[in-house]
Amino acid sequence: MADSQFIKVLKGEKTERPPVWFMRQAGRVLPSYLEMRKKYSFKELMRSPGLAAKVTLLPIYDLDVDAAILFSDILVIPEALGMELSFTDSGPRFAKALKDFDDPASQLKPDASKLHYIYDVIDEIQKTKPQNIPLIGFCGAPFTTLCYMVQGLGTNHTFPDAVTLLYKDKAMAHKLFSAITELSIEYALNQVKHGISAFQIFETHAGLIPSGLYFEMVMPYVRKISKAVMDAGTPVIFLPKGLGTGIKHIKPDDADFISIDWQTPIEEARELVHPNLGLQGNLDPRLLMGSKETILETLERYVPFGSKNHNWIFNLGHGFIPGIPYENAKLVVDWIKQTNWKRN
Ligand code: CP3
User: Residue 299 belongs to a domain with what CATH number?
Assistant: First the structure.
């Protein structure tokens, strides 16, 4: 089987064009997904191997992207650590928030078997996906996962109690990071065993804390997860959203590719990030609320960068948001595939 564009680029090979996929490509913008959500809750969709596999593959058929990402959520790790989770119309919510306990670590009851249904989902995807389409597995990075666990919900995106925990009780923060990391490694390696082609670590809320503090307190745990996955032969993409100039301190041991947010121009990110690390990104998803002309004009600005840089995966700076017209997402994929990238 010939490698897909996505796998070639992850391996460091030259291609005619950048591969393209989108964060949050399965839910939120696809009419076919929104139709399925009328019949099933998000939890029903992610827990049934047949349905989750179907949703995972929707963007392959509807958008023609180059890779599929497992349809699940980063909060399955806190759930398997014993925290009761529900998904409400205003986002995820835990029955109990760790901020309300004197000894939050004592609340955790790890049970790795609670993740087993996800391996059945992966098996079903492998059985039903087109052969040349790679499957991306993922987990949340320890800080973002901790944010939801401590705060208990995601409606307040500043997560004040999670951030202050890093200053008030470093020892407790380390205990919680260790518990998240240990289970995430087991989870990641099982995803590898079930045949994922790449693994992405989502640190959506890195920008809430100074990058120095991030490298001191969180990065050692990220490194443990990526090392385990990379040692198992699977490439790792790390998304440290909002890390700013901190991206220049990420080392090739920490990941294979870094996903860049929309704040940093991709050319500047290239200058900052270690040359042995590839880049992913970084279109502002909100641009896709704009006119076709505005979208195409912004896309054209990627051509000079893309003509020189083969180690680049086209993506958004963060995920799709509800309300983006499906046609605009498709326009981006078609444009990436039809553009002359002037590579040689
Ligand atoms: O394409 C995909 O959607 C892939 C699967 C996927 C989901 N969540 C499904 C989901 C992935 C990779 C995630 C990651 C995730 N989940 C992150 C990190 C990346 C990011 O986007 O920031 C975070 C922080 C979460 C936690 C989470 N789950 C939140 C904050 C929410 C509510 C807001 C939102 O983004 O919709 C969820 C719910 C969720 N996870 C939905 C989906 C499809 C929406 C469920 C619905 O259909 O109502």
Answer: 3.20.20.210
Task: Kindly report the protein residue whose alpha carbon is nearest to atom 39 of ligand 1.
Answer: 73
25 CA → ligand 1 middle, Å: 10
Residue 344 located in a structural domain: no
pLDDT tens across 210-254, in order?
A: 999 999 999 999 999 999 999 999 999 999 999 999 999 999 999
Q: Is 32 exposed, middle or buried (0-12, 13-18, 19+ CB in 10 A)?
A: middle
DSSP state of 153: B
Cβ neighbours of residue 288 closer than 8 Å, sequence gap 6 or more: 295, 320, 324, 325, 328, 329, 332
- 73 C-alpha to ligand 1 centroid (Å): 6
Give me the pLDDT at residue 319, please.
Answer: 96
What is the count of structural domains for the chain?
A: 1
**pLDDT, position 27:** 86
Domain of residue 74: give its range.
Answer: 5-338
Q: From the candidates 17, 33, 62, 73, give the one annotated as an active-site residue.
A: 73
Q: What percent of the chain has pLDDT over 70?
A: 99
Q: Looking at the domain assignment, is residue 97 inside a domain?
A: yes
Measured from CB, residues less than 6 Å from any atom of ligand 1 are 23-27, 37, 42, 69, 71-75, 87, 91-92, 138, 140, 144, 154, 202, 204, 319
